[in-house]
Amino acid sequence: FHSGQRFHGGQTITAAAPLDDIPLFVRAGSIIPIGPVLQSTSEKSSEPIELRIYPGADAHFTLYEDAGDGYGYENGEFTLTRIRWDDTARKLHISPCEGHYPGIEFDPKDRYTVKPMSD
Q1: Does the CA dihedral 39-42-98-105 come out positive or negative?
Q2: Could you give phi then psi for residue 73, rounded to 5 degrees?
Q3: Which range of residues forms the domain containing residue 57?
């Protein structure tokens, strides 16, 4: 993740793990959302979410978001956004956000930045 170094699957990897640079391995065909640094779940940001795309296989996931405080999520106050990477077509598909929660403040077209990681 940090170095960009590639490994083939099906092997054991021994790696140094200092606290300031703990190894993180990402499988080909992954989508990793990276949000802005916040001090608490109740803090809001207008910064977009960066979607890091690791090509090599198709990928999909559902991004869950809620108000960050309280129990509104128990009553359906949350959003789901389905995101899919088509590796053959090299296309990212982002479905419209489903749901709503109090305080939601974003324009979906400005919500994401996409960062393709190299093959």
Answers
A1: negative
A2: -60, -30
A3: 30-116
Residue type, 106: F
| C-beta of residue 119 within 8 angstroms of C-beta of residue 55 | yes
Domains: count for the chain: 1
| Tokens coding 112 | 């994401």
pTM for this structure? 0.80
In a domain, 100, yes or no: yes
pLDDT in tens, 13-42: 888 888 888 888 889 899 999 988 888 877
Can you give 21-61 as a three-state secondary structure string? CCCCCCCCCEEEEECCCCCCCCCCCCCCEEEEEECCCCEEE
